[in-house]
Amino acid sequence: MAVAQEELRDSADSSKAGAVLLEVRDLKARVADSETEILRGVDLTIREGEVHAIMGKNGSGKSTFAKVLVGHPDYEVTAGSAGFKNENLFDKEPEERSHAGLFMSFQSPIEVPGVSNDEFLRMACNARRAALNKPELPPLEFFAHLMPKLKALNMSPTFLNRNVNEGFSGGEKKRNEILQLAVLEADLALLDEIDSGLDVDALRDVANAINGLRTSKNAVLMITHHERLLDYIHPDYVHIMDNGRIVRTGDSSLAQIVHKEGYTAL
């Protein structure tokens, strides 16, 4: 029997617990301009330094939860709250949430014709730096900032000259998403099925890059169907979502049960 997140945390050394990054309480949301409710009361707390994984059947609300947090216009919050770094997340526009340090990697990143990766990444980086009252990075300094991150992902510098995701394979798009995460140095990364479409080598590269970005001050929330991602990025908590709620919380053993016996075993 899985125990609650608070009980798991209490069983660890509380002196090591970081500050709360995300505090979600009784969050309910529906498809915009409809009565179709998808989230039916989600509760979740994420602290600095933690890795969380959300698993669940298709249609359980996993991706909707992440999209609601970043302000996707297709969804409308009907009840509940979400605090990010002690501020009301829902008072902020999507770009303000990004500038505050929230990042989401999408299942199917869109193509942006006519905009080079280099230009896009530098603009995004400098927008985030401006929000943090840091000076902009000119092209040469940005290139020096970017190269180690490319190397960590085993990405060729030729990626920088290509238009954002245009003509990219599924694996290239996922690597590009993590490159964006690395450049923005986000405080909380929401990774929606980052493992989908990746072969074993690409998954290892992406996972190693994500692990390399982890610090005691940031956190990761992964949405996945597969245990294999959790073999590379070890979660502190695994949550099972069903019918718009988190119904079980435990450690990585929950993912092993799902892998062997399916969600019906839970």
UniProtKB/TrEMBL annotation:
A single GO BP: iron-sulfur cluster assembly
Keywords linked to the UniProt accession: ATP-binding, Nucleotide-binding
Domain ABC transporter per the UniProt entry, residue ranges: 22-266
Molecular function per GO: ATP binding; ATP hydrolysis activity
Nucleotide-binding found in the keyword field: yes
Entries under Pfam families matching the protein: ABC_tran
Family annotation (InterPro entries): AAA+_ATPase (IPR003593), ABC_transporter-like_ATP-bd (IPR003439), ABC_transporter-like_CS (IPR017871), FeS-cluster_ATPase_SufC (IPR010230), P-loop_NTPase (IPR027417)
Recorded GO CC terms: chloroplast; iron-sulfur cluster assembly complex
Protein name listed in UniProt: ATP-binding cassette transporter, subfamily I, member 8, SmABCI8
Lineage, broadest ranks: Eukaryota, Viridiplantae, Streptophyta, Embryophyta, Tracheophyta
